[in-house]
Amino acid sequence: MGKKILQPPKGTRDYYPELMAKLRWIFDTWRNVSIQHGFVEYDGPIFESLELFRIKSGDEIASQLFHFEDRAGRELAIRPEITPTLARMVAQKANSLPRPIKWFSIPRLSRAERPQRGRLREFFQWNIDIVGSDSVLADAECMFVAIDFLRRIGLTSDIIELQVNSRTIISSLLVDANITPDRHEHIFAIMDKYEKLSDRQFDEYAKQQGLSADELSAVKDILTLKDIDAVSSLTKSQESKEELDKLHQLRDYLHAFGIEDYFVYKPSVVRGLAYYTGIVFEIFDKSTKLRAIAGGGRYDHLIKLFGGPDMPATGFGMGDVVLLELLEELDKIPADITRSGLKFFVIDADKQFFNLALKITSELRKKGISADYSSKRQSLGKQLKSANQAGAKFAIIVGQETADENLITIKNLQTSQQQQIKTDEFIAKADEIE
Amino acid sequence: MGKKILQPPKGTRDYYPELMAKLRWIFDTWRNVSIQHGFVEYDGPIFESLELFRIKSGDEIASQLFHFEDRAGRELAIRPEITPTLARMVAQKANSLPRPIKWFSIPRLSRAERPQRGRLREFFQWNIDIVGSDSVLADAECMFVAIDFLRRIGLTSDIIELQVNSRTIISSLLVDANITPDRHEHIFAIMDKYEKLSDRQFDEYAKQQGLSADELSAVKDILTLKDIDAVSSLTKSQESKEELDKLHQLRDYLHAFGIEDYFVYKPSVVRGLAYYTGIVFEIFDKSTKLRAIAGGGRYDHLIKLFGGPDMPATGFGMGDVVLLELLEELDKIPADITRSGLKFFVIDADKQFFNLALKITSELRKKGISADYSSKRQSLGKQLKSANQAGAKFAIIVGQETADENLITIKNLQTSQQQQIKTDEFIAKADEIE
Fold first, then answer.
1. Do B372 and A38 touch (CB under 8 A)?
2. 8 Å CB contact of A36 and B10
3. Which residue does chain B place closest to A133, by CA atoms?
4. How many CB pairs under 8 A join A and B?
5. Which CATH number is B340-429 given?
6. Position A2 pLDDT exceeds 60
7. In sequence order, which residues have a C-beta less than 8 Å from that of residue A278 and are 6 or more positions away?
8. Is the pLDDT at A423 greater than 90, yes or no?
9. Which of A91, A379, B140, B338 is within CB 3.0–4.6 Å of B253 for a Cys-Cys bond?
10. CATH number of A14-335
11. Is it the case that residue A22 has pLDDT exceeding 70?
12. According to the model, what pLDDT value does residue B1 have?
């Protein structure tokens, strides 16, 4: 046994109770917010056929995945994202699912890339998707869900911003600048780097990627558009004008939802991936240099690509890694969530009362109330220490007076206040004690 | 796109919302029961170094796992169980973790075996472990947690039984029958088949596995012991007598916990795996032919095997597949858990009132109350149908009287009762409406 094997594999985490409690808090809040906005939960297998990921991302995806063969030689891969699974599942039952499909999931995902800050080899990602609606209201709703969650955990509009763009508009502006549509995909991938590089680095990178001086200048004119009105003055084509109307409508919806103050128009947000079709967005915090907290947008042709009908779709993903880093940095994780949730810790004043202590513990648990006891027979002081270590709210002390007079002592472990009450009365109202 | 790729990989499931709701109910109950009994949650990475699984299960394990290499050539495997991870994590922080360690987890697991009834290639398994206590009370407590869960979901003692044994006692009885300890491991694996085969099949199997007629006869004498008292009459060695005392003590604890009626002594329960050291148990339903619902026992030397200190440990695992099958068969899944949990569905009587409907939806959500609306502008009847499909409890109808007199209509979708109230009043007390 080398020392190495005590560690988790490179780029992964051990979820000890303290970290797990933080994740559980995030997962529960993701889930509650999803349900409140009318989404239902789904999930898929942790591994899929490797081919499924190739459909969306091409052959080169294989090198970024953990893949393997089963005994029959089927090529399988651990999922790096859940969207291909969603597309497959929707395509499989497209005719029987009521529309619009409003689904959420909190998949565990893996990728084989080199681990970096904010990017690990194993992570969790909240996914919100609306399939079957082409209305901009669906896009607005996805943004509302994301912001509602962030607001609820204390990330208000002074801390974060919702950066919105439309690939349709950018495409149209590129055409106006004489850059033909066959090159837009490539240009989007370049534009996606704009915020991550210095001005000089970006110019160099764009040249390396084959942009001419004229093209670079046109691209930078687009990238420096300050707001929707600035776009408006440049927009010429009918398609682009219609899309601009959608952005205005989006902003009206965000206003109706009370989250307009998070909205920023950001032409550099194009999302690196090929399958986005219209409005796209990313959520960033304003103060730190962290990666995007969330990102998503409209992907109207993906379900068809996976063998389903042509169904419009929009959604986003939000990972746990950047979010947790940001929350730690801003000290926004509530102190009490790492407590165990244990309410009572039953202590015997002497080992002769242990069976009585056990009986009381057991009656509490049978009533569905969390209770534990010291598994070792030791001094009252040591048992109180164990009660604190276990994160219990109250210690219940069982002793001679319990045997003689049916009385137990309740000690509040936070305030140290204590009182005696009848055992039966305690059991009867244990769930009301706060 | 062939049709095949629409399906999940062989032996795995797609968790559509209906199945997901059932799993969510099971997971939440597992979690709540764990916390009530004083356990805290942990988890580990979905893949571990392949070597970690070899430590516990030998080289042959590789063929039962999905394994692969990362770019640096590290051999990794998707976890088929979480116990090696638990042992690694405990070993890593053995000195800083307060003892006893009471941990639970609900890991997602995979194995590369041929799928069969009750055994899939991907499944979930509730794990309860107490590390650092050698008291039989810890064994009793694990059983209590398992039974408490099963009782809570409606599997009472008329449906299931807790089959208990001790490997120490069986070993001692085998020695008394002149079967030397070096062969016990092999005999345990044979005994493990007893309940799965007919009497004739078992005799044949035992002979194939190299048991002599005398040995088979001795093994069958042990396998047909009816209760602890019958064991008592056979027991000779001191070690065996002490272990028998533990079984009696165990039964007393189960009595104190109020679950003695689930207890059955079963000499065939030896658990196939090499690492169990003392008391072992399995939980079965009495009526069906399904596999064990849960199984576990004491494994006192495993933490040391993984590089930690020599810490006594006991625990069990309960999978989702057999449990779900049994619950479906006995019709024990509550009907309302597959409902979405959506409370309000807001409907406009005419599209001119849609913005008003949206505003009301948004105010409900902002208050943390689940609410949705029809994303399509369509007739009131169709919107009511959508409300039902979405599983909402109430429809809220917004129309002319809302605009003119600030009145909305609440319709209970289960009873069809409806009433009008002031919009403000509705929003204010929406969380109290039942």
1. yes
2. no
3. B375
4. 253
5. 3.40.50.800
6. no
7. A139, A166, A167, A168, A243, A246, A297, A298, A300
8. yes
9. B140
10. 3.30.930.10
11. yes
12. 45
